[in-house]
Write a structure and sequence with these properties.
The protein is of the alpha/beta class. The chain folds into two domains: 169 residues, Rossmann fold (3-Layer(aba) Sandwich); 217 residues, 2-Layer Sandwich (Nucleotidyltransferase, domain 5), CATH 3.30.420.240. It is 29% helix and 16% strand. It contains 14 helices and 17 strands. The strands form four sheets. An eight-stranded mixed sheet has the order 5-6-7-4-8-9-3-10, with helices on one face. Helix 1 packs across helix 2 and helix 9 packs across helix 10. The radius of gyration is 26 Å and the shape is elongated.
Length: 470
């Protein structure tokens, strides 16, 4: 329950009964003049400060309604400048003006807010403005640089250009950008910018109909009908799933989602395999992933971000510490580019690290054009046959946005990282780390030495060679 004090000078008339306001409950407290509002539990953090607040998901989750109520109540409490934006707004009818107006009536705030044709004004100086982003230039948006809050609705259609103009414009100290949208494609700029690679400190929340305790019977009938009449689009419309990248998608979105929902299955003889995708600095990240049989979610995932990965000696030190903490039986690391010297140094330190080049020949040269494609194929088979992945939106995007083709020998080949970046796709650093755990077959192990460090050459596990399976 969240309570906002309301100035007593505009509380007029009878309050509406709580059941008439889906998702909200009003209560009159004579001494304090309060409006009490209930939100779905999953959306409670909307009351906290975050530079970016991102609500995404399918129909019926209450994203827009929750934001509208919260902004109106904040505007009562403090004088705020609030910009309500969307990519295209040819008329005020295409904005959230009507939604806010409806809630002003439902919350009985009409004595406080004046609803004008193109804006909404509060008696304390609060003002709601409405604008389209696509037709605006940098100069055109400058008038909004003093905004306290910018709400971008239907943000799935917002272009990279619009984000590049808007985000530096909303720069007042303590200002916030609130974003709500139903995802469409995995490669849409908004999804990549705020879900796959969210800014530091952002609150990102997926919310669907199942999270809304006030989901209506009418919407439930629509949802059930969609499952039957339009099954191909149901997951996108109601569950907030992105549509697949294309018919050439190498790994499907439903298979990845299903894998992330699985409970891990552990076999006591499964070796612990570590995959290390070494970054090249800049926009790439270094990822360290651990997999034991069908379980790739029980062990923690580690990331060394961007420029921090350029310090190779620091990376080596961190990797050694992680190897000691997790004690993998097999370590596979990307030895391409800057990875080679790091792999060499780890082996020099007596760690049994297998260097893998994604561009080298596949073990099965008849079907796969290179080692990287072969590893991804094994990972795909594992995902489709019971593997449990960690639940992470960046990983979903990396696994599902990569396309494939065929070389002149009719072997399957994945699109290159260079092409992916040119097309605006994320670098598959996380996904490659998972794929590296499939680089070589690793023998099962009977564990009677829990105090050993299996990856270290000079320990006493001389009776176990992880590569015996070869």
């Amino acid at each position: 329950m969240i309570t906002d004090p309301i100035p007593p000078d505009f509380m007029t008339g009878e309050l509406m009964p709580p059941e008439s306001i889906p998702g909200a409950m009003l209560e009159s407290i004579d001494d304090e003049h309060c409006i009490e509002v209930e939100y779905p539990v999953i959306l409670a953090p909307i009351r906290e400060y975050h530079r970016y607040k991102v609500l995404y998901g399918g129909r019926g989750g209450g994203k827009s309604h929750t934001i509208a109520i919260e902004l109106l109540l904040r505007g009562v409490k403090d004088p705020l400048r609030i910009l309500c934006a969307r990519e295209v707004q040819k008329s005020i009818k295409q904005s959230v003006h009507q939604l806010l107006s409806d809630y002003i009536q439902k919350l009985e705030l009409s004595a406080f807010y004046e609803i004008l044709d193109t804006e909404i004004r509060g008696c304390n100086g609060t003002v709601f403005n409405f604008a389209g982003l696509a037709g605006n230039t940098v100069d055109g948006l400058k008038s909004y640089e003093g905004a306290d809050i910018c709400w971008v609705e239907e943000a799935q259609t917002v272009s990279s250009r619009s984000w590049q103009i808007l985000t530096p414009t909303i720069r007042k100290e303590g200002s916030m950008i609130w974003i709500s949208f139903n995802p469409f494609m995995e490669l849409d700029p908004t999804y990549l910018r705020f879900v796959v690679n969210p800014p530091a400190g952002a609150w990102v929340q997926r919310v669907n109909w199942s999270d809304n305790p006030w989901f209506s019977d009418e919407l439930e009938k629509e949802r059930q009908h969609c499952m039957i009449a339009d099954p191909d689009n149901y997951a996108n419309i109601w569950e907030g799933e992105c549509k697949g990248a294309s018919d050439m998608q190498f790994i499907t979105t439903p298979s990845v989602r299903e894998s992330m929902e699985r409970s891990p299955i552990y076999n006591g003889t499964d070796p612990l395999i570590c995959g290390v995708d070494l970054a090249r600095g800049g926009g790439d990240d270094c990822f360290i992933v651990f997999r034991r049989g069908r379980d790739c979610k029980s062990e923690r995932v580690y990331k060394i971000g961007g420029e921090a990965s350029r310090n190779s000696m620091r990376v080596v030190a961190l990797l050694v510490q992680l190897f000691r903490d997790h004690r993998p039986d097999q370590i596979n690391a990307d030895e391409g580019s800057m990875g080679g010297p790091i792999v060499d140094r780890l082996n020099q330190l007596n760690w049994q690290v297998t260097g893998i080049s994604f561009g080298s020949r596949a073990l099965d040269q008849k079907h796969w054009a290179n080692r990287g494609t072969e590893m991804w194929a094994k990972m795909r088979e594992w995902i489709n046959t019971g593997g449990a992945l960690p639940k992470d939106e960046r990983l979903v995007s990396e696994l599902t946005c990569r396309e494939f083709g065929h070389d002149n020998k009719d072997r399957v080949i994945l699109e290159s990282k260079k092409k992916m970046k040119a097309d605006g796709k994320p670098s598959p650093d996380f996904a490659d780390a998972v794929a590296l755990t499939f680089a070589v077959e690793v023998a099962s192990i009977e564990r009677g030495h829990k105090d050993d460090i299996p990856g270290l050459r000079h320990n006493d596990t001389h009776d176990y060679d992880p590569l015996d399976a070869l």
